[in-house]
Amino acid sequence: TDKIKDSDRYRFRMKHDQAMPFGFSGKIDIDMASDGDYLHEFREGYAGFDKTEAYFNKTFVRELDDYNDPIRVSSLCLNKIGEAYSLNAGARWYDDTISQGNTDVVLHKLPFVRFNSLKQKILKTPFYWKLSSEYTYFYKADGPKGHRADIYPRFFLPKRFGNYVAI
Q1: pLDDT of 142-151, one tens digit each?
Q2: What is the pLDDT of residues 133-167, one digit of tens each?
Q3: Distance from C-alpha of 21 to C-alpha of 42, rounded to nearest angstrom
Q4: DSSP per residue over 32-95, as a string?
Q5: What are phi and psi of 52, to 5 degrees?
Q6: pTM of the prediction?
Q7: Do 38 and 97 touch, CB atoms closer than 8 A?
């Protein structure tokens, strides 16, 4: 195999949190490397993996992928949390440092949308409902692509029998 020249090697990582209009918040995490050995060779030092990991964990309360992991995850997420629901939308790109651009067989999530609600009473009835749902478009340059939607509604009728049994 061809060795990567030192002048062609790189590492780019960043994290950013942003307040958005209408109560949304945004987060971006980027972690890209030219090759799988880069993180091992530059693990220590001021801009090395260990110091960067500690800084990101302290500042953003989010970690980087392990330095041994050849798949580096970059993501964008928009989020809104209400009193009884959460809405998350975004994209996840998986950078394969082993293939080095020869083939792209890793599935990326471009985009995904999740909507979840807490258990809530249905009007003035004794029934409750809850919803978990997600839509994802899976993409890869080489190979099949596809859509997936998961919708999981639940309905509840809680019953109590004295102070001892709840169903």
Answers
A1: 888 999 999 9
A2: 999 999 988 888 999 999 999 999 988 888 887 77
A3: 39
A4: EESSTTHHHHTSSSTTSHHHHHHHHHHHHS-PPPPTT-SEEEEEEEEEEE-SSEEEEEEEEEEE
A5: -65, -45
A6: 0.75
A7: yes
